[in-house]
Design brief:
Beta-Lactamase, Heat Shock Protein 90, 15 helices, 27% strand
Length: 451
């Protein structure tokens, strides 16, 4: 067969074949897959190695086109490969073949052209090696991706040994704790643990050695500058290839702002509860101190007084519930009675802000005084006038003076009316006092409240 392919070896003097049959036997039995085919023809040689690799017996392969039999996938066009063989008598590259069972194999192929048309092809199976390389490449990519994620994470990600020595420290850890990676790696993790919380680290390492995972453990840590921060910790065991725990991975999230927000929410909730109860208490007091001849009239009286409270609440919103300025309360309650030149009502006093409870009380009182004046006093005719002034004493008391003139003649009532009782009942809980002076020319009401 080798003589037929023109592959026989000659002795140095060029006369007799040198062990051609023995050489043929060696090639036939070789573990390395080998085949010989003509450039324009079928397979003429197929050894035992080719049978083992591809699954085709010699009688199934010889006489057929190797490219068709193996579904060869070339890295270049076959015409180019053929040209290289003819020009250089050899070609080396990687091919993909399909086995008899349908599986794909990757081979490193070495081709040698003998004469003008016979190609001896020796292939080495590198499928497993390529798969390993692919796995390693993909693993490397995943590791690089994970490393990138770790470095770009907003959470501090730290690893440490079972002795508590820092072995890795990402950018976020630098930002959160203030130590650079160079300063932290090789140091004990207690570097960032306050002195009064050192026992936490011992407990964490004990649990890690048992293989436990610690989730969302909220605690306090210390920055390089000494300041304390609230953090949420998640700690997981790190195992080696044998499954032995060799360290711990720690994710620390700075929750200082979240804790501050939660504290603010709790404060606001308590404040809202306090204000809500205060409002309800005022409403209850208004209802208890209100009376009228008819149910419709009573409804109107109560609605007006509650509306006065609602009006002052809109002022609280503008100051974020700090309180309300006395002049703003006065203009709001007396607004319906002010003319375009403000000639009937005079409002005068230094800027004074009342906290919400006192502001609500003053709003209800001014509403009551204005309502009474519009029905029976200075605002019930066209000539009456009202003066509202206020001042603040050195001992922290606010004194408001309501003066009516020009209205109908006034006489002191024989008994305390419901309006007067409402005013006194509103001011007294604040530790304040109310004085009514029923002058013939008009009512004078003086109110003193601590602020």
């Amino acid at each position: 067969m080798w003589r037929r392919l023109g592959l026989q070896r000659r002795s140095s003097d060029g006369e007799a074949p040198l062990g051609a049959e023995r050489l043929a036997d060696l090639l036939t039995l070789s573990y390395e897959p080998m085949l010989a085919w003509r450039l324009d023809g079928p397979i003429e040689f197929w050894n035992a190695g080719a049978e083992r690799l591809y699954g085709f017996l010699e009688n199934e392969a010889v006489g057929r086109s190797s490219h068709a039999l193996l579904g060869t996938k070339f890295p270049i066009e076959f015409a180019e490969l053929r040209s290289q063989l003819q020009n250089t008598q050899s070609w080396l590259g990687e091919l993909r073949h399909t086995r008899k069972d349908g599986g794909e194999v990757i081979v490193e192929s070495r081709m040698q052209l003998f004469g003008d048309s016979v190609v001896l092809e020796a292939n080495r199976d590198v499928t497993a090696r390529r798969e390993i390389e692919t796995i390693l490449r993909e693993t490397d990519q995943r590791l690089r991706s994970l490393a990138s994620i770790v470095e770009s994470s907003h959470d501090a990600i730290v690893s440490k040994s079972l002795d508590g020595i820092v072995t890795s420290w990402n950018k976020a850890a630098e930002r959160v704790f203030g130590y650079s990676a160079r300063e932290a790696i090789g140091q004990p993790i207690t570097l960032v643990i306050p002195q009064d919380r050192q026992s936490e680290e011992r407990e964490i390492l004990t649990r890690i050695r048992r293989g436990e995972r610690i989730d969302h453990f909220e605690t306090i840590r210390q920055r390089k500058d000494g300041s304390l921060i609230d953090i949420s910790l998640t700690v997981s065991p790190v195992k080696n290839a044998n499954g032995t725990i060799v360290g711990a991975s720690k994710i620390a999230r700075d929750i200082t702002e979240r804790k501050r927000t939660q504290d603010q929410i709790r404060v606001l909730a308590r404040e809202a509860e306090h204000r809500g109860k205060n409002i309800l208490a005022n409403v209850q007091a208004i209802i208890n101190l209100s009376q009228s001849d008819t149910s419709e009239s009573l409804k109107e009286v109560i609605s007006g007084r509650i509306q006065a409270m609602a009006n002052v609440h809109s002022l609280f919103v503008e100051t974020r519930w700090i309180g309300a300025e006395v002049s703003a309360i006065a203009k709001q309650e007396l607004g319906p009675y002010l003319d375009e030149h403000d000639t009937r009502i005079r409002i005068e006093g230094l800027p004074t802000v009342l906290e919400p409870t006192a502001a609500q009380a003053i709003a209800v009182v001014l509403h009551e005084l204005a309502t009474n004046a519009s029905k029976y006093g200075a605002l019930s005719n066209a000539k009456g006038q009202i003066g509202l002034t206020w001042s603040r004493s050195e001992d922290g008391k606010l004194t408001l003076r309501w003066t009516e003139v020009g209205g109908p003649s006034v006489k002191a009532p024989k008994r305390t009316g419901f309006g007067s009782r409402l005013i006194e009942g509103t001011i007294s809980p604040l530790g304040g006092k109310v004085l009514f002076d029923w002058r013939s020319e008009g009512l004078v009401c003086e109110i003193a409240v601590p602020i």
